[in-house]
Amino acid sequence: MKVLITRDIPHNGIAKLKQFPELELDTRTGPPLAKEELIKGVSDADAVLVVIPDKVDKDVIAAGTKLKLIACYSVGYDHVDTDYAKSKGIFVSNTPGDLTEAVAEHAFALMMAVGRRIVEADFFVRDGHYKYWDPLIFLGPKMMGKTLGIVGFGRIGQHLARMAQNGLHMDILYTDIRKAGKETSGVNATQVSMEELLARSDIVSLHCNLTEETKYMINANTLKLMKPYAILINTARGPVVHEAALTEALKNNWVAGAGLDVFENEPKVHPELLKLPNVILTPHIASATREARIQMAGMAVDNVIEVLIKNNQPLNWVNK
Ligand code: DGY
């Protein structure tokens, strides 16, 4: 049985698969596969392990005539046409829970870095502008006691809430479109409407899935509801934010700053964002702790083993 692994992933995953001689591994390295290569690769594969840049659309799925499983090396699976896969009887799996701390920590880091203008200040020093101490440069907000609004109060949102509340005594507001009055552990948080969250929060951090409902949820209208000195953090999915509207907001001081790990047309970044000093941009690395990436590899291949070797449903089946 052939398993296509579209990118180099931590080798604990490959080593696990190698324990099964009945599996033939087609492991690819280098940049993401072009669509034609992906189609060719899946055409004789029994399972494919895909990463975020692999767009697993109808053409790719239809080419996988033997395909039993599309195993995402990610929690998000908006890059896979899960409904079409289901119509073909193909399982889709993900790796939930493996990157909770990693993503929450990255959101926290972006929040602090934007607020305290760390990247701007670093460039200032490197560019030779640090000639004397100045009482008025790089002023930012005190973070202690501020209000943090979390959009999407799942595992990651709640972990960030705990860090912000335990570490910085922040007040936590949240919205969650899927569940009212979510169970929360170890954090005192108040569920409010989106409008109230945007109007009251000093920092807004996005942790929702990308769906029809959340696409462009942050747009010109919603950005104008935010406080002029508020900070927006996005470690969820790029299209949740209308990037052109955000550039306007950052230029016209509707908001004070933003920290973005994900982009509307990844890996392309809106050209205006690249010019703005009040935004920090990272290349979709929120899950990039060694621990999380190793755990992701283990979980992704466990799904492959479950389906191909044990003839079961995947452990983390998302297109039921
Ligand atoms: C995910 O898993 O969905 C992240 O965006 C990438 O690790």
TrEMBL record:
Record GO terms (molecular function): glyoxylate reductase (NADPH) activity; hydroxypyruvate reductase [NAD(P)H] activity; NAD binding
Protein name: Glyoxylate reductase
Domain D-isomer specific 2-hydroxyacid dehydrogenase NAD-binding, first and last residues per copy: 108-286
Cellular component GO terms held in the UniProt record: cytosol
CDD domains the record matches: GDH (cd05301)
Family that this chain belongs to: Belongs to the D-isomer specific 2-hydroxyacid dehydrogenase family.
Sequence ranges assigned to domain D-isomer specific 2-hydroxyacid dehydrogenase catalytic in this UniProt record: 3-319
Keywords linked to the UniProt accession: NAD, Oxidoreductase
